[in-house]
Design brief:
By secondary structure, the protein is α/β, with parallel strands linked by helices. The protein has two domains: 128 residues, Glycerate kinase, domain 1 (Rossmann fold, 3-Layer(aba) Sandwich), CATH 3.40.50; 216 residues, Glycerate kinase, domain 2 (Alpha-Beta Complex). The chain is 36% helix and 18% strand. A six-stranded mixed beta sheet has the order 3-4-5-6-9-10, sandwiched between helices. The chain has a five-stranded parallel beta sheet with strand order 2-1-11-12-13, sandwiched between helices. A hairpin with a 2-residue loop joins strand 4 and strand 5. Helix 1 packs across helix 14. The chain starts with a strand and ends with a helix.
């Protein structure tokens, strides 16, 4: 039995999901052989998944999205690092109810990348998602040595809003070690940088942006792409990921965009784990329409189906039909909502409920 599930956001980490599922399965089949490989798609929990797979956790102090120091971690194994931008520039670093769509910075993500380079990383997987920022990765590039200047030759202020005044960009001072490194942009979204499907329009409101802010940010990011000299890349898949940090990585760091779950499964050694599996259990907090667009469970199911291994899922909430699950390669799903209809109580008691759901799965498929 291979458990390859993502976190249940707001209640359980991916590691905890695997622990509770294992406990539930073994209430029915005590001697069941279980291997856990917690997964992530590039967003929150990506570093934790890498550490669970044998990477070493490295912790550094970096600049948070509001400019304050925060503790952030990356994962390292030999010369491969997994960097999660949410560790440095994520919404989780904002005080409750506080947003800064125009001024939040990705500077700390650049510092995290620099720490990975200093640790000897030559392949860096940059997982993006859960960001508090809309600065197109300008802060990240600045931390790595770029100079982004206004008409007076003064560095522009932090945040996406200030990019409206960008007049010149000098990338010649970028950390020289980047030239010898392979940067992989791992994201579960393929939005462009600007336009109606761009970073500001689609994700800005989730970060507190008003309609006026969205218009200002889209114009500022358009200006940013013009000054950096690669307007075409602003429409590239993934350029709009995590407030446009995708664009900064693609243009400034020469990153290659790949679906986050695809990259993480490769880095975490999913193929090797799958060789010994008779059944895979995947899942995440909510199995819904978004799941079908590059989220972890579908990536797991796709890889397992290619090897002829059946897949079942566990989740907090199920909003997909049996036909949609089957089309994604998932034979069935067990939802906590079926055991506890109240969402607050379900999240508060997610662990015990998940053990019950896993026991039901075992009764149906293993006994």
């Amino acid at each position: 039995m291979l458990i390859a599930a993502d976190k249940f956001k707001g209640s359980l980490t991916a590691v905890q999901v695997a622990e509770h599922v294992t406990a539930g399965l073994r209430t029915v089949v005590p001697d069941l052989s279980v291997e856990a490989l917690p997964v992530a798609d590039g967003g929150d929990g990506t570093v934790d998944a890498a550490v669970a797979a044998g990477f070493e956790r490295r912790t550094v102090t970096v600049t948070g999205p509001l400019g304050e120091p925060v503790e952030a971690a990356f994962a390292l194994r030999e010369d491969t690092a997994v960097v999660e931008m949410a560790e440095a520039s994520g919404l989780r670093h904002l005080p409750p109810g506080v947003f800064a769509p125009l001024t939040a910075t990705t500077y700390g993500t650049g510092e995290l990348l620099r720490a990975a380079l200093e640790a000897g990383a030559r392949t860096i997987v940059l997982g993006v998602g859960g960001s508090a920022t809309n600065d197109g990765g300008a802060g990240m590039l600045s931390a790595l040595g770029a100079r982004l200047l206004d008409a007076d030759g003064v560095p522009v202020a932090p945040g996406g809003g200030a990019l409206a005044g960008l007049a010149a960009a000098d990338l010649s001072g970028l950390d020289a070690r980047l030239a010898g490194a392979r940067i992989v942009l791992a994201s579960d979204v393929d939005n462009p940088l600007v336009g109606p499907k761009g970073a500001a329009a689609v994700y800005g409101p989730q970060k507190g942006a008003t309609a006026q802010d969205v218009a200002a940010l889209d114009a500022a990011l358009t200006r940013y792409a013009q000054v950096l000299g690669d307007v075409d890349a602003a429409q590239a898949p993934g350029a709009g990921a995590a407030g446009g940090i995708g664009y900064g990585a693609l243009v400034g760091l020469g990153a290659a965009f790949r679906p986050g779950i695809e990259v993480l499964l490769e880095v975490l050694g999913f193929a090797a784990a799958l060789e010994h599996a008779d059944l895979v259990i995947t899942g995440e907090g909510s199995l819904d329409a978004q799941t079908l667009h590059g989220k972890a469970p579908v990536g797991v199911a796709s890889a397992a189906r290619a090897r002829g291994v059946p897949v079942l899922a566990v989740c907090g909430r199920l909003a997909l039909s049996a036909a949609e699950l089957a089309a994604a390669g998932i034979g069935g799903a067990y939802a906590l909502a079926d055991l506890e209809a109240d969402p607050a109580r379900s999240m508060a008691n997610a662990g015990p409920l998940l053990r019950r759901a896993a026991a039901a799965l075992a009764h149906d498929h293993l006994s």
